[in-house]
């Protein structure tokens, strides 16, 4: 009986240790928006030192935007005939490789009468409807960040990338998704000092 109790205690200690270690290695809850921070495994790839806001899709899979890649191109260059585009101060960001001819807006306030608006978390809205993006440019041009393209993952694909160590995950928050300044964002989230 004593031997069984010792085995049980030893097994219990190993079980607690194993579940504690396994808990730290488990993937993030991808049923909610997360911030993805490129790991060193992505060094040398187009996604090196990127920070991505990733959001689940209702049908499975995820979509998101690289939030720390300003293009250096102003919206007025892309839309020279749209007078209000000249009022946008920040450059357009490169959101990802999918839909590279589409402009999307991330904003803290949903535009009125917008049909195709998603809310990955409270206080953040993704505007995918061209007419709604145009209304934002016309009415509150600097209350949004504009992205060319986006990231898309098929069901299970993002989980696989995280399991392979391509991305570290962080809880999503509006200030990280729409930082006031994107230089140094990857370094601050990855803990690397420059």
Q: Taking Cα atoms only, what radius of gyration do you get, to the nearest Å?
A: 21 Å
CATH topology call: VC0467-like
Q: Quickly give the CATH architecture.
A: 3-Layer(aba) Sandwich
The CATH homology group name:
VC0467-like
> How many β-strand runs?
10
Taking all residues together, what is the mean pLDDT?
84
Shape: globular
Order of helices and strands: HEEEEHEEEEHEHEHH
Question: Into how many domains do the coordinates divide?
Answer: 1
Report on this structure.
- The structure is a single chain.
- Strands 1, 2, 3, 4, 5, 6, 7, 8, 9 and 10 form a ten-stranded mixed sheet that branches.
- With 194 residues, the chain is an alpha+beta fold.
- 30% of the residues are buried.
- The N and C termini lie far apart (59 Å).
- Mean pLDDT is 84; it is low at 1-27.
- It contains six helices and ten strands; from the N terminus they run αββββαββββαβαβαα.
- The protein has helices at 2-25, 75-78, 130-139, 157-163, 174-177, 185-190; strands at 34-38, 51-56, 62-66, 70-74, 91-94, 98-107, 117-121, 124-127, 144-153, 167-171.
- A hairpin with a 5-residue loop joins strand 2 (51-56) and strand 3 (62-66).
- It is globular and about 45 Å long.
- The protein has a single domain (29-190), classed as VC0467-like (3-Layer(aba) Sandwich).
């Amino acid at each position: 009986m004593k031997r069984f109790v010792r085995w049980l205690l030893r097994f219990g200690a190993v079980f607690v240790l194993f579940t504690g270690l396994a808990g730290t290695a488990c993937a993030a809850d991808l049923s909610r928006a997360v911030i993805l921070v490129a790991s060193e495994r992505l060094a040398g790839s187009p996604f090196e030192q990127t920070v991505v806001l990733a959001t689940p899709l209702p049908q499975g899979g995820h979509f998101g935007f690289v939030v720390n890649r300003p293009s250096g191109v102003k919206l007025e260059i892309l839309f020279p005939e749209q007078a209000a585009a000249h009022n946008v101060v920040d450059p357009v960001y490169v959101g990802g490789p999918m839909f590279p001819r589409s402009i999307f807006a991330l904003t803290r306030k949903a535009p009125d009468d917008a049909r195709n608006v998603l809310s990955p978390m409270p206080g953040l809205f993704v505007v995918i409807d061209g007419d709604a993006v145009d209304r934002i440019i016309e009415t509150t041009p600097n209350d949004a960040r504009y992205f060319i393209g986006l990231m898309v993952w098929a069901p299970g694909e993002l989980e696989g990338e995280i399991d392979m160590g391509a991305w570290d995950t962080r809880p999503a928050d509006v200030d990280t998704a729409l930082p006031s300044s994107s230089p140094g964002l990857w370094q601050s989230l990855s803990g690397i000092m420059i």
